[in-house]
Amino acid sequence: MKDVVALLPIKLNSERVKGKNFRNLCGRPLYQWILETLLSCNNVKKIVVNTDSLELIDNLNKSYPQIKTILRPEFLRGDNVSMNKIIEYDLSVCLDEEFFIQTHTTNPLISGETIDLAIERFFENLNKNDSLFSVNRIQSRTYWGNGKGINHTLGELKRTQDLEPIFEENSNLFIFSRQSFLNSRSRVGTMPILYETPKNESFEIDEEEDFALIEQLVRGK
């Protein structure tokens, strides 16, 4: 097993859920949930946080001195900057590392065990796949915006379990090598593994109602 570096972007402001990365979720800021999970992983050897918040850098340096912090440059700030551009910058700073996992603060329910298993799966298939990303399986009747079926023929009411599954990227994790990123200019390479994460770990905070839902789920545990 080779060393894997976790890349975690944390920006100060967010468009749809204001200040979500720093909002309190059941007693601690949202970003702390994924940080603690990454620190618990056996297969993550180093964590790198890319942020535009000087206050966060100061807090992390005090509370998590083992975590490397990168101050995001001005040209990479804003809501319209591609995450691939931020990863490209991180790789230019982390010159000695070869394998990376990128995740987000917005997936606080992902477990360390799931992350470790995904990393193991990536390395087990490195001879034929160049990356891995997490997905949700959708096995129901899906439609294009014009009403045409995506994975079924209208009028043929197949059982849903017999339909062709469709996979939705859930942003829980992306695993790739430096070389695969350079080849594709993307965290998803040309021969990726689509890795299904457990449903109860795959919730993502995109909207205000997502935050409320996850808070209820955490309290329910």
From TrEMBL:
<keyword id="KW-0808">Transferase</keyword>
<dbReference type="GO" id="GO:0008781">
    <property type="term" value="F:N-acylneuraminate cytidylyltransferase activity"/>
</dbReference>
<protein>
    <submittedName>
        <fullName>Acylneuraminate cytidylyltransferase family protein</fullName>
    </submittedName>
</protein>
<dbReference type="InterPro" id="IPR050793">
    <property type="entry name" value="CMP-NeuNAc_synthase"/>
</dbReference>
<dbReference type="InterPro" id="IPR003329">
    <property type="entry name" value="Cytidylyl_trans"/>
</dbReference>
<keyword id="KW-0548">Nucleotidyltransferase</keyword>
<dbReference type="InterPro" id="IPR029044">
    <property type="entry name" value="Nucleotide-diphossugar_trans"/>
</dbReference>
<dbReference type="Pfam" id="PF02348">
    <property type="entry name" value="CTP_transf_3"/>
</dbReference>
